[in-house]
């Protein structure tokens, strides 16, 4: 019984140490980590138009020169 209790105490100390270490190093709560990961994964690349250089038309070249 005491061996099992020691094992749980060690696991608890390790988990609390990780949580405290994360908060100490980053200054943020560990509870915000899943939201930050989800935001990074859901970022979308927003580009105006095509990135193909053949399709790009420079507006300055399209104007008529006098």
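^ structure tokens above, recovered residues below v
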């Amino acid at each position: 019984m005491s061996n099992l209790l020691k094992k749980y105490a060690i696991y608890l100390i390790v988990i609390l140490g990780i949580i405290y270490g994360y908060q100490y190093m980053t200054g943020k709560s560990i509870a915000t980590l899943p939201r930050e990961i989800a935001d990074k994964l859901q970022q979308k690349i927003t580009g105006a138009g095509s990135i193909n250089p053949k399709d790009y038309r420079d507006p300055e070249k399209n104007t008529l020169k006098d």
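Residues 51 and 57 are 11 Å apart (CA to CA).
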